[in-house]
Amino acid sequence: MSIGYACITVGVPDTALSSCVMKNASPERLKELIEHNLNSLENMISYNAENAIKLFRISSDLIPFGSSPANTLPWQDIFKEKFESIGKKISQNGIRVSMHPGQYTVLNSPDSEVVKKSIEDLRYHFNVLKLLGTKSENKIILHVGGVYGDKASALARFCENFSCLDDEIKERIAIENDERNYNAEDVLDLAQKLGIPAVFDNLHNSINPSGISDENKLIKLFAQTWKQKDGRQKIHYSEQKPNAKAGSHSDSVSAKKFLDFYRKINGSSLDIMLEVKDKNLSAVKCLNLLSEEKNIKALENEWSKYKYNVLEMSPACYGSIRELLKDKTAYPAEDFYALIEEALISPLSKQNIENAALHIWGYFKKYASQAERKGFFTRLENYLDGKTSLLAVKNFLLKLAQKYDEKYLLHSYYFWI
Hints:
Elements: E1 2-6, H1 27-50, E2 55-57, H2 75-78, H3 80-92, E3 96-98, H4 112-131, E4 140-143, H5 151-162, H6 167-170, E5 173-176, H7 184-194, E6 198-201, H8 202-207, H9 215-223, E7 234-237, H10 255-265, E8 271-274, H11 280-290, H12 296-313, H13 315-324, H14 333-344, H15 350-361, H16 370-384, H17 390-403, H18 407-410
Parallel strand pairs: 1-2, 1-8, 2-3, 4-5, 5-6, 6-7, 7-8
Helix pairs in contact: 1-3, 12-13, 12-14, 12-15, 13-14, 16-17
């Protein structure tokens, strides 16, 4: 069993990806961006390895304009050794990677130009996975596409255009049920016809259900599409964001909802990709919830990262968590994360926000300059008076943490969530 997240690593320095607009996509600029992005990817992989995260979706934005004629740079040759180095780290740490082309990669479009570009985009995604030295269990996840007024014809067109793909690309493709057009049974039928694996998405299934209401039964049926060469069956797990458009992913995974789902479906036999806004934070949460080691140090490490967010949002939860972690023989993971979740949805209070900001300032007050002291308190006062944003205060404190290399703060989620 592996649990992973998609594309962005939250709260980890030097992991952001960069891009540019097409008019600025000169070979020189693209080379700089790709070098930066590959370094960021390597840092993401290092973070995942350190945190026992064995499942990760690589962003399609890794190579700006990767499948577009706008990118004339021979990036595959220039960065061949860098890809190999990252791929070696992926392999050595047993990490399974994937990619997921965006909404404009539509293999069943009636527009031949769209199909042509989609095939080129699939080739780009394959090339990234190939350069990393990955094998066929590292998939490219694809939605079936549109209906265009005739689902039967659209499905037939998908099959026809799929047959045009190179065999080495075909063996990387897995298809996923979506929230509008193709439900779980549609995707199952198509996957069985093409002999490719299908990825079950629980949130999409709740919005666009099939005739089979039992999630556990559906997952078992999806399992039959996964052959040995495809690796362990993979599913997508997400939760609906409250009071948002159907299909909007929640900010964080609920510990209780995830555990209920995991136990219901016997999740230990699956690879579970979380689709959630806080990305790796939820992945670490779920791994800790399922940990067989049950080491209190894992929760203490999490507390060191969340504590100032909790103090900012709910001093009551802050006190409860401190009490909870006093027993070093226990492993109260469910209660711990329930309190974290309760804190993070608590109403904002300027008094609590000020208190947390002053705690952060305490790390610098002994050696900060007079100008820095004035800068902090002016921003804090302006925030309390409604003249500036909390982000302005936090960004100033972040710059101080970076300047004075306060690693404890730099690994805190205070600046990121």
